[in-house]
Amino acid sequence: MPPRKPSPAASRPAKIAAPALERFLSLMLVMVSVTILALLANLVLVSPVQHYASQNRLYQDIRLALAEGSAPTGPVNPDGTLVEPGTALGVLYAPIIGIGHEVMVEGTSAAQTMEGIGHRRDTVLPCQVGTSVLMARSGAYGGVGQAFTKLVPGDKFSVTVTQGSCTYEVISARRPGDQAPSAPAAREGRLTLTTASGAPFMPTEVYRVDAKLVTDAFDHPSVAFPTGALPSSEAAMGTDTSNLFALVLLLELLVGVAIGVSWLWRRWGRWQTWIVGAPAIIAVGLLSATAINQWLLPNLL
Q1: What's this model's pTM, rounded to 2 decimal places?
Q2: Domain assignment of residue 124, given as a range
Q3: In sequence order, what are the residues at sequence separation of 6 or more whose Cβ sits closer than 8 angstroms to the Cβ of residue 243?
Q4: Which class for 96: exposed (0-12), middle (13-18), buried (19 or more C-beta within 10 A)?
Q5: Is residue 104 part of a domain?
Q6: How far is 163 from 175, CA to CA, in rounded Å?
Q7: 21-37 pLDDT, tens digit each
Q8: Which residue from 257, 259, 250, 292 is spatially nearest to 278, judged by alpha carbons?
Q9: What is the CATH number of the domain that holds 78?
Q10: Is residue 135 part of a domain?
């Protein structure tokens, strides 16, 4: 009687489970990789879409506010409360550098520069007597600030606020260490456009463009913030670490999703787990990446 051949199942070597520590480290590496990839995808691919959606919403808001004359004229509302950061203030038009219309918002922390050009709250509004400071990102979330670097002396652009429209003419561009122009006198108006320069998504220094008002300046109410009173998160290249607890919760949720996917992989199988787990990992990863952009990365990135 010929010897029986072993079945294919019997000829396979038995699977040996990896040690618990190795499985845990592998899971952590997957989590870190997903977060990094989600962060890069958010900066390069998702952030322009988020910025576009924010600008569409803000543009509708400011059109109505300008028509009603209800847009803020200073840092304080008529009822004495501070203007909420993120409130639409006006629109900047600079076709010469490819900016059709970009809505300006109150505040210059990372959360505001994600939506549009941020107005530094301890300065007057554009078109008013004095010096106004605006900040915009150079790479992510529309990268509007990158267009600022194309401005040269003599270029003109306009701004519309609730008091009316005005025109500015560029007088200089400067980097750290360069001499700033003299302060405006009497009823002169100035505007400083602030962004970052360097390799894409890797800013190295602050870049400023100074412009003078060439139309009549509007009066401004008293400024509620003395110079130097704003938090460091609203300074150029500032980071906002005020809400790290929420970021920790998101990262914990990401760990929980990764553990759940690992468990499903063993229980269900590869394709079933991908169908259920991939959308969850991508969604939580993008939320975590957005939180990292808002609370850990510079506001001019």
Answers
A1: 0.84
A2: 48-233
A3: 295
A4: middle
A5: yes
A6: 32
A7: 676 677 667 767 777 77
A8: 257
A9: 2.40.260.10
A10: yes
